[in-house]
Amino acid sequence: MKPKQLLYIYSILGLLAISSCKKDGLLNQAPPTSLTEASYWHTPSDLQNYMNNLYGKDNIFPHYRNYGSLGIYSVDDNSDNMVPQSLDGRLSGQLTINNSSYADWANIRDVNYFLANYSKVSGAASDIAPYVGEAYFFRAMLYFQAVQNVGGVPFITKALNVDEITALNAPRLPRNVVVDSILNDLNRAITNLPAKGKAQSQRLYKEYAQGFKARVCLFEGTWEKYHAGDAFGVSGQNGANYLQMAADAANTVISSGVYQLDNVGVSNGYFNLFNQTDYTSSKEIMFWGAYNQQAGITTYWQNYYQFGSGGTNSDGLSKSLVDDYLCTDGKPISLSPLYKGNDSLAHQLKNRDPRLRQSVFLYGDTVISNIPGASPLKLFTYPGLVSGTPCTTGFQIRKGLNTDYFQDSHNGPGGTDGVIYMRYAEILLIYAEARAELGTLTQGDVDMTINKLRDRVKMPHLNIASIAADPNWLFPSLSPVINEVRRERRIELACEGYRLNDVLRWAAAPTVIVGKSPLGAKANQFLTVIPAIKIGTNLFVNADGYIAPYGNVSSMASGYQFNVNRDYLLPIPVQETVVNPAIKQNPGW
């Protein structure tokens, strides 16, 4: 193997400049410049400066918080929750093998380099430990991303040099072996990181690492359970061990007493959870990233709530998602006498779980406020169905909106709504789901998890002893309890980027993706208020009059063609199998 090829896989670390931890947080700092290695490995400050650079890496804290990005409330557009303008390649079975690496080897090497050198530093163990914990956390996060993408990978723990060909030619490990290594790293992180009350602002801390451990264990436990016996499963494993660890880790976070839900029982409390510029005082937001206008690090998300028509965000909510919200009596739309039908947005949103109304625009909602020198408000009139970047379904997303005029970068330096990486609601849902999958969920468990979430929006409690059979359950072969736990997760975390991984780990593509054609609202309600609509030309409908965003796409004539024998995992790039012949391709590719 040539050194050039090895360097392609493992970028050599550029040593980092000394930069202080500013009060406005690590996640909005530009990367420091390079220094010589002689400047490092002396004091705990060197460790802090090294780790500061990793906080700003795109593949560690996702790209949507960087300058020019659109925000987090469109990252379900690769699932059955949302419908983007462009057909999703994975859902449609049209993915091809590209040249992107299957793991973030450069950042993994940077972490390994730190772990190989931090012991050179002199200082109190208590001053060094937090940065060691951060390094183990970051390595766990990077490998978890790789496992989610492609399954088992080589687990490399050294900062390899270009002449270490044997290690670079390592084969892929079974995915459960990699996950066990990830959990070992997370346990080290938990041991070394300070508790939240003692951690520096916007730095990693113990309870967040415990929450992330719960996330990893739930993913892998359900993956093993529902992929048992298929090409993507783990031989001899049923997921029970990971599911128990998920429940235990989530319970540790719950029992810590550090967190509680924000805005419980407050009007529009769910809506207002997602439009804050500062989550420092939040009891629910476990980890978040701040933007900084002075540093030029802002978001364009608010641009996508258009002046005038009230919104042209091209990702509309799907009818499937909208239909899954319960009515205010706690019953599904198939059973509730409160459901008003589908003829208009007003009917569909009336008497429904308030989380729906607080996530979708309806006529008269404020789009922009505080407009200087003009009318103080701009109101929603109708979804921009035929504009330049049209709402695909008529269900225009409202979740995440900050109406302040200056949050739109057309009018100022850019938006600064904080980006949420984990919130306590997810931990409650992890605990409930893990216990349900283990068959040990009790009413007491439900009361301290799902019913806490329902209390925020004043919804009736879930009573697992008297669940009415919903003829429209998405997973009719599974128990009523699991169906309702999954529904609650879908509703609470809608449009926050969880749904695709949920579908994948549940092996649920045959049920909710394959052969499905996403739909929107009834089209007739918009014909008189949007004169530019021409059915069959710039708007397509199905036989029942619902907007069919892909009604003119020939490849969607039979719905999504997700390949269940291939598309649960992404392919290994060909160049990587050439460089390392021990890396075998994923099933079906």
Major β-sheet annotation: 2 strands, antiparallel
Uncertain runs are 1-24, 29-35, 65-70, 306-312
Average pLDDT, all residues: 88
The succession of helices and strands, N to C, reads HHEHHHHHHHEEHHHEEEHHHHHHHH
- Spatially, the strands of the biggest sheet line up as 1-3
Number of helices: 20
Distance between the termini: 25 Å
Main structural class: mainly alpha
Helical percent range? Answer: 25-40%
Shape verdict = globular
Strand content: under 5%
Can you count the beta strands? 6
The rounded Rg comes to 24 Å
Give a description of the structure.
This protein has 589 residues and is mostly helical. It has helices at 3-9, 44-55, 105-117, 125-150, 165-168, 175-192, 206-226, 240-255, 269-272, 319-324, 345-349, 354-357, 424-438, 443-447, 450-456, 480-492, 499-505, 509-512, 524-527, 574-579, and strands at residues 82-83, 285-289, 316-317, 366-369, 377-379, 419-423. β4 and β5 form a beta hairpin. The radius of gyration is 24 Å and the shape is globular. The relative contact order is 0.14.
Concise overview:
With 589 residues, the protein is mainly alpha-helical. It has helices at residues 3-9, 44-55, 105-117, 125-150, 165-168, 175-192, 206-226, 240-255, 269-272, 319-324, 345-349, 354-357, 424-438, 443-447, 450-456, 480-492, 499-505, 509-512, 524-527, 574-579; strands at 82-83, 285-289, 316-317, 366-369, 377-379, 419-423.
